[in-house]
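Hey everyone, long-time lurker, first post.

I ran two proteins through the pipeline my lab uses and got sequence/structure pairs for each. Pasting them in order. The first:
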Amino acid sequence: MAELTQILQAVERGEENSSERLLPLVYDELRRLATIKMSRESEHQTLQPTALVHEAWLRLAAAEEAQWQNRGHFFAAAAEAMRRILIERARRRSRLKHGGGQVRLDVQELELADTTPDEKVLLINEALERFQTEDPEKARVVVLKFFGGLTNREVAESLNVTERTIERQWAYAKAWLFNAIRKEF
């Protein structure tokens, strides 16, 4: 744990080869988080956990103002990077130019409430963006749990609060998001 914090500080200072020393320490944990997140995605999702980790790593390494105080802060940034990648992919696939997920259907069989997995991710993201303006702290819990795949304990450690606080914030956030998404339909 201390070694990771020291390397994160070296990355922040711009020391040579610090990023190369960081990747082996965090790769397995990033891979675990990506696997958890991808297990909740649709079976039509073509992005593999390894590719998600690599893309997130490229974004984290390219961040010019990367300042990670500790392990929790780094993994919070990684969760946010994974979230953005999944949202961008969902938006790209849902564009009309790319077919927009359109499928020929018999009008008799059409269910209006039926949404694709990409649409669900986009709905959650839109509601989350509104929630961030209202309550950024609880919105951060959603990002870490839903998009980052962290447990309550891991989120609590990352945010330096108690696990019970995270449980309360998660319950509130889920209810808020459910109501916001329900209003869209």
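...and the second, right after it:
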Amino acid sequence: MTSRDDRIPSSFRAVCQHVVLDTGRHAGPDAINDIRVFIQTSFAAIATSNYSLSPTWPGESVIGQLTDRAAGLFVWADTVVRFVEQGIPISA
């Protein structure tokens, strides 16, 4: 998968299928909801297994903000979850 095809040989491009991934304000409601569910589920697991927090942590407002900022990009949401999973940084 690539967003640019300038370095891909034309013989390879000829057999590839072009798929549009709508993001930002063009992201569909299914993609947005999938990201919201992923963030909610992942954060609930982090909250209950690592910190004894409420499974609704960090709250709907933050979940909504993170969902909006993901802009339809699952990789963005996954990166945020992985970052939070690392825990609070400890300075040396």
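Reply from user beta_strand_b:
Welcome! Quick read of the second one: The chain has a mean pLDDT of 87. Helices lie at 10-15, 29-50, 60-70, 74-85.
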